[in-house]
Amino acid sequence: MLSLEGDVEVHALHAQGWTISAIARHLKLDRKTVRAYLNGDRVPGQRARSMPLLIEPFIDYCRIRLADDPHLWASTLFDEIVELGFTGSYPSLTTAIRKLALRPHCEPCHAAKGRDVAIIAHPPGEETQWDWVELPDPPTDWGVGRHAHLLVGAFAHSSRWRGVLAPAEDFAHLVEALDQVVLRLGGVTRRWRFDRMATVCSPESGRITPAFSGVAKHYGVGVDICPPRHGNRKGVVEKSNHAAAQRWWRTVADDCSVTAAQASLDRLSQRLDGRRRVRDGQRTTVGELAESEPLHPVPATAYPAELREPRKVTAQGLVSWRGNEYSVPPGLPGAVVTVIHRLGSETISITTESGAVVAAHCRAPDGAGRVVRDEGHVLALERSVLAAFDASKPCTHKTRRPLTAAALEESARLRGRPSSPDPAQKVVIDLSVYAATAANLSHAPHRDPLEQQ
């Protein structure tokens, strides 16, 4: 590498008529180095690479991914190329994206303007922020419609967050998701903060609903409601929503199941506990900050809200729910039933549209792939199948059965031919008529001689 002074010396000697070999001998350099600086191939003060950059084999992949999705996070792209064998660092990836201009320009994003925000103090163990995230275009096999529903909870102090997928955003599913998130977070803070979701409070007044007051008492937390149109008041969970949507949801495959998607989200949120932080001049991580927060233990059982989810009965008398199948009595194939589960209990019940309970089972672990069948349902189904079975001799498929007269008549009509023969052309099959006709033909006819003249 030549300094600025050395580069000036090389150009000065060359301008005075020195050859490249003479300059190389005088400055004790390689001739190729001198030629590179004279041609402008090398920049003074910058060391030439002795080996290709680690990012070079992955440049085309990065360019394709960023062309397909210009807003793809660099951290998400880094996770992908690490799985492909990249051994470099995250800063080397971001440097390559900037220098090689791999990310396409987005004018609406560059035109957006910022705004001032206040800094809010969050003591350790004080607050958990909650929010629903509606994720568009979920895989078709999930059967949740146009949006998937993700409940995200984040510690305001350490910014540790966890998320749980839910079939809906009603009260019962909110309570179930809340319980699953606090279990993943490892404890309960002193207060919970929500925006004005209707399952928690009245959107107009901000007053907590009677139903959710029971949930707050069960978990021993105070509830704070954000002022209207103040999303920054729970900015920690909003940023967590952003990470979940950009680093995880954008990469969920079409054939990914709900269980696999939840597992991948858990892995991402746990990996993000390693984010670096500086507090009071000390280097730490999100995970270390979260572990030091004073938290209350999670209650042994969830708040007893009642889940209700409609399902359709299969021809085998089974109802699919949460990755398992449960039996119902025969006679209900194709019928829509409701699976009812009270959170904290070990059983589920299945009711018809009229509210009649037709089955009750012990709940199997979600995603276990079990078939839970009641012995009474099995026997009743066998009796129903046997009763409908015809024990007579089955049809013989090799019997000769020519076209019937009705079929022949219809075939003739379709072909445009008369369905029955013309009476004038009727074939004589009476033997007496035939004998009389033959007798008349056995005698020669007699003619009168006068007629011949």
Automatic annotation (TrEMBL):
Gene3D superfamilies hit by this protein: Homeodomain-like, Ribonuclease H-like superfamily/Ribonuclease H
Q: Which stretches make up the Integrase catalytic domain?
A: 120-302
Q: Where is the signal peptide?
A: none
Q: What is this protein called?
A: Transposase
- In terms of superkingdom, the source organism counts as Bacteria
Organism source for this protein?
Nocardia fluminea
- What are the recorded GO MF terms, alphabetically? nucleic acid binding
List this protein's GO terms for biological process. Answer: DNA integration
Q: Identify its protein family.
A: Belongs to the transposase IS21/IS408/IS1162 family.
User: Per the UniProt record, which residue ranges are transmembrane?
Assistant: none
